[in-house]
Amino acid sequence: MALKIIKLAVNLESQVDTSPMISRFFYEVENTVEGNESLKIDASDFLDDSGNEVSELPKLNLNNGYFNVYINGILQMEENFAYTGGEKGDGNLLIMVPEGSEIYKGTSVILEVLNFAPLTVTRVRT
Q1: Is a pLDDT exceeding 90 seen at residue 124?
Q2: What's the pLDDT band for 45 if we cut at 50, 70, 90?
Q3: For labelling alongside 106, which of 32, 57, 63, 70 has CA 20 to 30 A away?
Q4: What local confidence, expressed as pLDDT, does residue 12 receive?
Q5: Helix, strand and coil in the chain, % to nearest 5
Q6: Quick one: residue 26, left, alpha or beta (phi over 0 = left, psi -120 to 50 = alpha)?
Q7: pTM for the model
């Protein structure tokens, strides 16, 4: 008899739900920030979608999440920012203003944090 590969025949059905969790935070710049300076916005300086003070910024799920920063309504390049989730004193957004740029007093900063909690359900069909 000739040799052959014996395979397991299984009929599977999988369903993946991504379940996005979106949080938005708002801040108004208090003083003009010149190029080559940094602006550190503490968690407690932000307001949430309802206009309430924020006590904590969400942790960023590095494998299934990301954050966006909008300054004056314009999406910004990621390399100018560092984000740390956590409570007042720990959680913050750090903005490094490049040379030749400024952020004027009264400018809006919007932080958007998106985390995904993927769930996969696999069923064996007979």
Answers
A1: no
A2: very high
A3: 57
A4: 85
A5: 5, 50, 45
A6: beta
A7: 0.82
- Give the three-state DSSP class for 44: helix
CA torsion sign for 63, 69, 75, 79 is: negative
Task: Say whether pLDDT at 102 is over 90.
Answer: yes
Which residues share a beta bridge with 41?
A: 93
Sheet strands (E) in 48-89 = 56-57, 65-71, 74-75, 81-84, 86-87
Question: How far, in Å, are 17, 62, 77 from residue 120 at the CA level?
Answer: 6, 19, 32
Residues 6+ apart with CB under 8 A from 43: 54, 55, 56, 57, 86, 87, 88, 89, 90, 91, 92
